[in-house]
Amino acid sequence: MAAVSRVLTSEWTKIRSVRSTVWTLGIALVVTVALGALICLLASNDFGTMSPRDRIAFDPTNISFAGMGLGQLAMIVFGVLVVSNEYSTGMIRTSLAAVPQRGTFLFGKVAVAALLALVVSFVTAFLSFFVGQAMLGTHAASLGDPGVLRAVVGGGLYMTLIAVFSMGVATMLRSPMPALGILMPFFFLISNILGNVSATEKIGWYLPDQAGHKVMQVVAPAGDEVPYGPWGGFAIMLAWTVAALLCGYLLLKRRDA
Amino acid sequence: MSAAPEMRGHRPPLSVLYMIEIEGLTKRYGDKLAVDGLTFTVRPGIVTGFLGPNGAGKSTTMRMMLDLDHPTSGRVRIDGRHYRQLPTPLKHLGALLDAKAVHGGRSAFNHLLCLAQSNGIPRARVHEVLDTVGLTGVAGKRSSGFSLGMGQRLGIAAALLGDPEILMFDEPVNGLDPEGIHWIRNLMKGLAAQGRTVFVSSHLMSEMALTAEHLVVIGQGRLLADTSMARFIRENSRAYVRMRSPERERLLDVLRDAGHPAAPAGEAVEIDGVSAADLGELAARHRIVLHELSPQQASLEEAFMQLTAGSVEYHAHSAEPRPAAPEDGLPDAPPPPGAPGTPGASGTPGTPEAPPPDTPPGGGWGAGWRDQKRGS
């Protein structure tokens, strides 16, 4: 275990000593909280004009996470850069010469980055929730309401897994450009399109981000037919993340550095 | 026949400590053999030069030594173990492969610190190596702003970090200014003098001649020579006598009758292994007019090019074949440095028996060597 703790210390030094860490995580937090607050403010003003159907389906918790759609992109950049920085700079050879055990290296790196992402994601989720509820005024939910705490915790976990999934994909692809070029449009556009077109809706249910969103909902949207619950959705996302990491690990192990 | 087998009997049992042992190392990229059955051992206490033209497979070999690239077959052992089995590899082997292989956004100190931590090396050692390479003043600066020379020093600091007994440098003087080159040469010699194993690659014979005591020469991925520098110089810096005469045909006859096969070289004639004095007297006895009688010495660089040019050019030049390569095509490792010189062909740079299978366009490396020499 000594080897593992050495790698964790080393990876912590790596991650804290580059600027991209602060930038990406900072943007993820600020964008998510600020955009969520703005949308909550707009929703609060529009509440009076909403149809009764919309009012029943109104989910004050989930709407305070509305900024996550954009904020998660910064999380993706964080996850991708943590891994692909090694490749784009050539540092990977120096790193693997120092830690030739591929598994210890990769999972040590992912563990440190995931832990950091987890902390930032939880701060982001709770901050988004409280700021958002403040904006919603009388329509606000309380942390003590049924399902609300689970949704906020879920929001933190969701953002963390987005980052970790990105690390797995970046390990597979090595270079930052293809990794970002696939992940960003996928999570920002393609996944939403697939989920909103009736023909592909069912495929959309099983995509990592759509499945993961479920854990952040307190009130199910009208006409929701999704065949899994909040944690079921989270489990699907977790499975995607584990699969991405395992593929990344197997490739790292087989490939020449 | 090679004398190597009997030599082996005299050799003391080998300790594997501080050694790099390479056995049948092969790397294939598609249908191209980048490294072809390399077998050699790098020993402590001396600088071993790893020489070969660009693209000969030096860097690939070094990457396989560090377990960065997976060999197609064969193996490398560091201190008797596979690199991946070393719990803290930086304490066994320090390597400078590519000085630019650092994250430019990270400070020199943090770059070294993360490497140190991964191998349980104390933080104080980071300050020490920064001091050794003279980067203390810029330790807090991001390495993206470093000059080539500073980057090289940072790479060397990383190699020295674990105070390893084995050090490996890939083309360390490339692109450095004279002062930097001088510094690196002295550093390598100093490390070897401390009893460490120093393995350094270069594509320049002249560079190796200044630093290395032992030479491993490869070409097209194959081992061409594994010999001490002194022996390499002795055997490869070909001394010959150049003779020119208006009666060239008669001179050739006389030389042949005297048992000195000569190689015609343009208008002149080149003779190996006979002194200029003897040849002059021979000519005088036969009353042949000479326009030139001059002892010649091929430079090491020429010897290297000749060696790596492959057997075609090699044999076309000297009528008397050189001592033949050992039958397996791979010369046996020479005795450890300091061992008494052994007679025979042991350790002789093995000239490949067959011409290179796929000679690149233009006749391949060194093909123009003879022509250039003649023209000059």
Mean pLDDT of chain A: 93
The most extensive interface between chains reads: A-B, 31 and 34 residues
Strand order of the largest sheet of chain B: 5-6-7-3-8-9
Structural class of chain A: mainly alpha
Largest sheet of chain A: none
The geometry of chain B reads as elongated
Task: Tell the overall outline of chain A.
Answer: elongated
Provide the helix percentage of chain A: over 70%
- Tell me, rounded to a whole number, the average pLDDT of chain B: 79
Q: Compute the CA-based radius of gyration of chain A.
A: 19 Å
Structure description:
The complex is a heterodimer of chains A (257) and B (376). The mean pLDDT of chain A is 93. Chain A starts with a helix and ends with a helix. Chain A has 257 residues and is an all-alpha fold. Chain A has one domain (2-254). In chain A, 78% of the residues lie in helices and 0% in strands. With 376 residues, chain B is of the alpha/beta class. In chain B, 33% of the residues lie in helices and 22% in strands. In chain B, helix 3 packs across helix 4 and helix 4 crosses helix 5. The longest helix of chain B has 16 residues, at 178-193. Chain B is elongated. In chain B, 44% of the residues are buried. The model of chain B is unreliable at 1-14 and 311-376 (pLDDT under 50).
SSE arrangement:
The complex is a heterodimer of chains A (257) and B (376).
Chain A: H1 2-16, H2 19-46, H3 52-57, H4 60-63, H5 68-89, H6 91-98, H7 102-136, H8 148-173, H9 176-196, H10 201-205, H11 208-213, H12 230-254
Chain B: H1 4-10, E1 20-29, E2 32-42, E3 47-51, H2 58-65, E4 73-78, E5 93-96, H3 108-118, H4 123-133, H5 148-160, E6 166-170, H6 178-193, E7 197-202, H7 205-211, E8 214-219, E9 222-228, H8 229-236, E10 239-244, H9 248-257, E11 262-265, E12 268-272, H10 276-285, E13 292-297, H11 300-308, H12 311-317, H13 369-375
Parallel strand pairs in B: 3-7, 3-8, 5-6, 6-7
Antiparallel strand pairs in B: 1-2, 1-4, 8-9, 10-12, 10-13, 11-12
Helix pairs in contact in B: 3-4, 4-5
